[in-house]
């Protein structure tokens, strides 16, 4: 029978056998999946693990600080943060097609890990001067939706599966590859990963890059970040975090519509609220949020973010839509 304990024992033994005394890096996003993968590998090889947190410039407001704080407090694992904003934004210049964005982001993550590996070798003196193993928190649904499942179509390339470059030099360690999110959360709790990390709502590796419909520019990211922060604040204040699976906020940078503010015409962009309820992200329903919460989010966003003059609600289940817009 499946228990969190038995999976942990099995994976710890397998990781030890594979890694020996080599040094290992883990791509950490601060989310549930990579945190639990890191905790599992840490249980197996302890100090031979260094986590790399890539700030790709596609994070939400305050996210980098929050991840750094939560890890310093709760995990006891060495984390190196690298600021790679320029790398990602340069690579994404002029790109609007969703799969192209995903492939670029997947590739630049790996390039960032390669660059960081040199720092790890210097700072922790990893034996042999190079690092062979990269830990990723890939889950079963990531594999299926990237077309890796049996007979599965490629719905979208998750950054850590279908988005990987062909010239990947690392050997991947993916201890969660057969699991769903609820199982990963159970394993995380068993491993003592702090509740505020285990219970965190999903956020995709490609971040806000796949929530700007259109070109991912610093300016579009700034607008989306401001709107997203307001939506998250109001959902938390209404006590709804535990009820929704996640609520992407999406900026339709390619769409403009006419509005009126004060005594003037505006020609701004819509943002979409995409609150969803789900068990495992393979299917989802749109969450029936209270009207007063929606009203507050809408009023606050349009007051505070001048580039946005319309807030719309996505009322589509998955299928036929997916959770993220790209
Ligand atoms: P979709 O949009 O496929 O999303 O219905 C399903 C779940 O997966 C998250 N998601 C990703 N997570 N890398 C990730 O780590 C990705 O490339 C990625 N794409 C989507 C999404 O937020 C939702 O929870």
TrEMBL record:
It catalyses: XMP + L-glutamine + ATP + H2O = GMP + L-glutamate + AMP + diphosphate + 2 H(+). Pathway: Purine metabolism; GMP biosynthesis; GMP from XMP (L-Gln route): step 1/1. It comes from the Bacteria. ATP binds at residues 29-35. Residues 2-200 form the GMPS ATP-PPase domain. GO terms for molecular function: ATP binding; GMP synthase activity. One of its GO terms (cellular component) is cytosol. Its EC number is 6.3.5.2. It is an enzyme of class 6 (ligase). Keywords: ATP-binding, Glutamine amidotransferase, GMP biosynthesis, Ligase, Nucleotide-binding, Purine biosynthesis. Catalyzes the synthesis of GMP from XMP. Homodimer. This is GMP synthase [glutamine-hydrolyzing]. The chain holds residues 203 to 528 of 528 of the full protein.
């Amino acid at each position: 029978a499946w228990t969190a304990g038995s999976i942990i024992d099995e994976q710890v033994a397998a990781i030890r056998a594979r890694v020996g005394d080599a040094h290992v890096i883990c791509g950490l996003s601060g989310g549930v999946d990579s945190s639990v993968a890191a905790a599992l590998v840490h249980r197996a090889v302890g100090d031979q693990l260094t986590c790399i947190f890539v700030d790709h410039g596609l994070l939400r407001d305050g996210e980098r600080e929050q991840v750094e704080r939560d890890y310093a407090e709760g995990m006891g694992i060495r984390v190196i943060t690298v600021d790679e904003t320029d790398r990602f934004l340069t690579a994404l210049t002029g790109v609007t097609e969703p799969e192209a964005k995903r492939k670029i982001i997947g590739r630049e993550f790996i390039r960032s890990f390669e660059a960081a590996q040199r720092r790890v070798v210097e700072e922790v003196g990893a034996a042999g001067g190079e690092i062979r193993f990269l830990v990723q928190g890939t889950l079963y649904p990531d594999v299926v939706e990237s077309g890796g499942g049996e007979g599965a179509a490629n719905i979208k390339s998750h950054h850590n599966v279908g988005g990987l470059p062909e010239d990947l030099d690392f050997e991947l360690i993916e201890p969660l590859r057969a699991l769903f999110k609820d199982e990963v959360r159970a394993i995380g709790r068993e491993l003592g990963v702090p509740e505020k990390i285990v219970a965190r709502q999903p956020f995709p590796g490609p971040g806000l890059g796949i929530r700007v419909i259109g070109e991912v520019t610093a300016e579009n990211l700034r607008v989306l970040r401001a709107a997203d922060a307001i939506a998250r604040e109001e959902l938390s204040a209404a006590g709804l975090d535990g009820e929704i699976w996640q609520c992407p906020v999406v900026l339709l940078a390619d769409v403009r519509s006419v509005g009126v503010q004060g005594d003037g015409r505006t020609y701004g962009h819509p943002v979409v609220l995409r609150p969803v309820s789900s068990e495992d992200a393979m299917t989802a329903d749109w969450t029936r949020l209270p009207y007063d919460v929606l009203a507050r989010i809408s009023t606050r966003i349009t007051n505070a973010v001048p580039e946005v003059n319309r807030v719309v609600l996505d009322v589509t289940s998955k299928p036929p839509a997916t959770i993220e817009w790209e």
